[in-house]
Amino acid sequence: MKTSANDSLLARALARPETEERLARQILDAALEQFTTFGLRRSSVDDVAKRAGVSRVTVYRRFRNKDGLVEACLLREVSRFFRELDDTVAALPTMQDRIVEGFVVALRHTRAHPLFGGLLRLEPEVVLPYLTVQGGPALVVTTDYLTSHLRRARHTEGRSDSDPRPVAELMVRVAVSFLLNPAGCIELDDEEQARVFARRYLAPLLDV
Amino acid sequence: MKTSANDSLLARALARPETEERLARQILDAALEQFTTFGLRRSSVDDVAKRAGVSRVTVYRRFRNKDGLVEACLLREVSRFFRELDDTVAALPTMQDRIVEGFVVALRHTRAHPLFGGLLRLEPEVVLPYLTVQGGPALVVTTDYLTSHLRRARHTEGRSDSDPRPVAELMVRVAVSFLLNPAGCIELDDEEQARVFARRYLAPLLDV
């Protein structure tokens, strides 16, 4: 009996990381659905718990509060975004090409994404600060991602070894600007326009 | 008598544009003071009228409503901003130099200006939409301004006669991005940093 009880404890302990992961995923899936359907302001932890089919305590224990839940949601979507970017550009031969296609995909993905472009349309007053006056963290994470790509490319393509971080930040700023305000004279509505723009004005920044 | 009455009518008619202009200026001065001290949300046409020492009707007759007043205030400050930019760069020998110093002055002026940087700090939720999702008009006006400078310079400096508008818009977008979100890794806190950044990353855009 004792051995069997221990076995069962062990089994649960071993199973736990997986259950934990599944539960967190289930909650985040529900949160994403809730936030993108009703907006951040009108969504509570209760709503998310109900939608996920778990208790409020289960949510609070994992995500602290609503802000923690929003943050975790955002982080997960940002990593997915980076993965999609990586997948799109991985096979392209030069950093120039990767910048051009990366810009096209970044615009397409963020505009169409329910949590980025979607909430920007649904609740601009809530979302805008996180992309502007309080946008430091988002800017840094995205710049870090692009910087590491640029750095690797400089090695393999034998470019100058000056710090690629300012160029990366500049490119991220330009992309964010088009997400926030598409209404200038530069039309990037179709992807070919975005491609031409990036090749002409962003790619040359790699060599300054 | 009749002639004298006519003379007096004529005199008033002739004097009118000046009085009108003085009155409009007086109201806009009061509006600027009111908006930048108390924010847009908590300011009414009444507040502005009181501060200007005129009746509400006098304000309404000239500026339609509060939105019209805000717009007129903004327009006036934007023209002042362009004039300051012009004065700063007029004597500089090349367009490259004018871009660099223009960028430095643009950052300094907008950050310090009570209506731009000031309200962005005081009431970000009110101001942000006008600089982002509803920022089309502001972007177009500023891009127009810079485009006409670039076009003139292309003539006098004999550069390529391709349309300078996309470059102008790109530069405006970068400057707005730094106004909205100064918290990246590119530090432009002191003017020498801003100058180095503009010379290295913005000026080369003139030749792409």
Task: Give an overview of the whole structure.
2 copies of one chain form a homodimer. By secondary structure, chain A is mainly α. Chain A has 2 domains: 1-63, Arc Repressor Mutant, subunit A (Orthogonal Bundle), CATH 1.10.10.60; 70-208, Tetracycline Repressor, domain 2 (Orthogonal Bundle). Chain A is 78% helix and 0% strand. Chain A has helices at residues 2-38, 45-52, 56-63, 66-89, 95-112, 114-122, 124-131, 136-157, 165-180, 191-202. In chain A, helix 4 (66-89) runs antiparallel to helix 5 and helix 5 (95-112) packs across helix 10. Chain A is globular, with a radius of gyration of 21 Å. The mean pLDDT of chain A is 90. At the A-B interface, helix 7, helix 8, helix 9 and helix 10 of A face helix 7, helix 8, helix 9 and helix 10 of B. Chains A, B: InterPro entries: AlkX_C, Homeodomain-like_sf, HTH-type_TetR-like_transc_reg, HTH_TetR. Chains A, B: Residues 44-63 bind DNA. Chains A, B: This is TetR/AcrR family transcriptional regulator. Chains A, B: Keywords: DNA-binding.
Task: Please give a quick description of this structure.
Chain A is mainly α and 208 residues long. The first copy, chain A, has helices spanning 2-38, 45-52, 56-63, 66-89, 95-112, 114-122, 124-131, 136-157, 165-180, 191-202.
Cα end-to-end separation of chain A: 73 Å
CATH architecture label of the largest domain in chain A = Orthogonal Bundle
Identify low-pLDDT runs of chain A. none
Oligomerization: homodimer
Give the H and E element order of chain A: HHHHHHHHHH
Number of strands of chain A: 0
Percent strand of chain A equals under 5%
CATH fold call of the largest domain in chain A: Tetracycline Repressor, domain 2
Task: Indicate the mean pLDDT of chain A.
Answer: 90
CATH class group of the largest domain in chain A? Mainly Alpha
Radius of gyration of chain A: 21 Å
Shape of chain A: globular
Range of helix content of chain A? over 70%
- Largest contact between protein chains? A-B, 35 and 35 residues
Number of domains of chain A: 2
Largest sheet of chain A: none
Counted by DSSP, the helix tally of chain A is 10
Which structural class do the helices and strands of chain A define?
mainly alpha
Organism (chains A, B): Streptomyces prasinus
Pfam family, one (chains A, B): TetR_C_35
Protein name (chains A, B): TetR/AcrR family transcriptional regulator
Keywords (chains A, B): DNA-binding
